[in-house]
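About this split. The held-out portion is used to measure sequence recovery: a designer receives only the structure tokens and must propose an amino acid at every position. Recovery is the fraction of positions where the proposal matches the reference. Here is one held-out target exactly as it appears in the evaluation file.
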């Protein structure tokens, strides 16, 4: 799989940390010519997505540390791994301050995105998780019962 597909899989896994966080305005300087998707997230080219997302994740980790949480700088392509209800609540506040994370040029609803999302959901179900198919236009909601092991196993890029 290409690096973008790998990053999308990791982004779906990172949704465990960010389930239900509100959409916010886009952060400046993260997108070519200020383009945003329909939800206000900055869109970036496939070539720039990984680097821009890594920069955003570093900013988010710094914001969480400023709010008193022991959060390490995420490794490139992995996102923040620390999780608790308090961190998720603080992440929501940080995202309001930073804006939405960048999104790849591949849009939800595109055939490639939908195919990858179906494969990810199928893998989680094969591992015994009850995952509800998202309604069209809605984000995938990953149940709290999904483990890091399940997410790593469903990383379809390996």
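Reference sequence for scoring:
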């Amino acid at each position: 799989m290409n690096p973008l597909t790998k990053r999308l899989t990791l982004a779906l896994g990172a949704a465990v940390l960010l389930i239900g966080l509100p959409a916010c305005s886009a952060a400046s300087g993260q997108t070519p010519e200020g383009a945003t998707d329909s939800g206000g997230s900055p869109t970036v080219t496939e070539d720039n997505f990984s680097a821009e997302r890594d920069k955003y994740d570093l900013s988010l980790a710094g914001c969480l540390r400023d709010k008193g949480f022991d959060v390490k700088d995420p490794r490139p392509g992995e996102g923040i791994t620390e999780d608790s209800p308090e961190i998720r609540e603080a992440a929501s506040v940080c995202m309001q301050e930073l804006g939405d994370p960048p999104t790849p040029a591949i849009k939800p609803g595109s055939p490639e995105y939908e195919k990858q999302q179906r494969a990810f959901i199928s893998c989680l179900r094969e591992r015994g998780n009850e995952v509800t198919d998202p309604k069209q236009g809605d984000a995938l909601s990953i149940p709290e019962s999904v483990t890091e092991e399940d997410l790593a196993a469903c990383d379809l890029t390996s």
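Annotator remark: Residues 1-39 have pLDDT under 50 and may be disordered.
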